[in-house]
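Subgroup meeting minutes
Present: P.N., E.W., G.H.
Scribe: E.W.

1. P.N. recapped why we're keeping a running log of single-chain structure predictions: easier to compare across weeks, and new members can see raw inputs and outputs side by side.
2. G.H. added today's entry (491 aa).
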Amino acid sequence: MTGWSAPAAAGSERGPTWTGCGPRLECAEVTVPLDWSRPHGQTITLPVVRHLASRPQQRIGSLFVNPGGPGDSGVEMATTRGDALDAATDGRFDIVGWDVRGAGGTARVDCFGDPAQRQAFWAGKPIPTTAAEQRAYLATTAEFARRCGAANGELLTHISTADTARDLDHLRHLVGDEQLSYLGESYGTFIGQVYANMYPRRVRAMALDGIADPVAVTGGTETALAAALVSTDKAFEQFLATCQAAGPDRCALAGHGPVAPRVDAMLRRLRHTPLPAPHATPPGTLSYQEALAPLKFAILGHPILWPEAAAALETAIAGDGSAVKDAASFPASEQFHRLVEPGQAITCADSPAKVRAARWPQVIHRFTQISRIGGAPLGWGMGAACASWPAGDTHRYTGPWNAATSNPILLVNTKYDPNSPLVGARRVERLLGNAVLLVHDGYGHLTNSDPSSCVTAATRHYLVELTTPAPGSVCLSDRAPYDPAFGGPTP
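Output recorded in log:
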């Protein structure tokens, strides 16, 4: 659908009732229609928090923020990062975060209702390797999708990003801003692009970090995940190359000969023979897919974790997979599945699968051709359920994507981002009618994972002064991976 636009004032006209909830923090719950085509029908509530501007006399307005996911908490982002975001924007904005529908308030997707039930459901079901394991896992994801449909009902048909964009426009109206100022990260960049194309005249400034390609995102689960995998193996190569450059004093994998061949040889062995993990909690063996999962879901996106990950891989090369198996425990945990349930539902709403569940192993094979590191973990862990998903969102937005806002949109993308390929950001720069891409010559998912004072300054100038970097601009990181002071204050 190319989308209709609900009026900004649809639903309640009353502004949020703010109450103090921490230093310079105010919290509220905002009521919105479940179905924006029926503004006076069933409603849901969304939690909202704002971090008050430190220079209120020079306040520009509100800066709405979203950390991605999909389904990560904007409330948490504004609460925990409010001071830093305030400083990064010269204290000129109230920093406003909200939990998108599907992720918070009365509109959170919850497929079990009880953590013990979720834990029991997923226990003993690691990412599959053999054909028999794949058939069993497909049955598990089909049952999971059925449970999600039974537990969440009509909500699943109203949680696409188009619904969230309508919520965001309503929030903008309620806080009294004539135009939107917005900072979106990862999936939050897709929210921004949907909003900008639905409401181009209502955009003041939009800084997007870790760009999602909207054509791929809306092209079906298979297309969306394939696009996100394009840069994963390149990021893994950089994880190994920067380790070798750092040397043995800073990276445990270095100093024993070329790093990449040693790690590749260990992974080849592991593909056929599990490694003992006698010191893991609990003790056991490490499988090939278990070794890949933390790389895709955590390590590659966060260079601050690279020294610890390198040490764990070095012990695996020596024959003990305990440290890697412990790192793999989170992607298999109840907490992980609880956190990703909203994201899976939003993904299936925005990007419904185009193949039946029985054909999903063929999709995984294609994914592993794109990325040996991330293909199976992402394809099974985030995509398989969409092939059995019980609901669709007829109001999802699928384009066009070429709207021209009055002020340019600032796109920022890290060169070696394992989740948001730079090629997608370049495509979005060409698609949008008025956008400028700033390339961060660094590593990890999102620029705050590999700090760059250059990116911070460029984003501040843009959001506050509406000035963009020159086309083709590149920012360097403040420090290299494996630097002991990585992530610390600017040198």
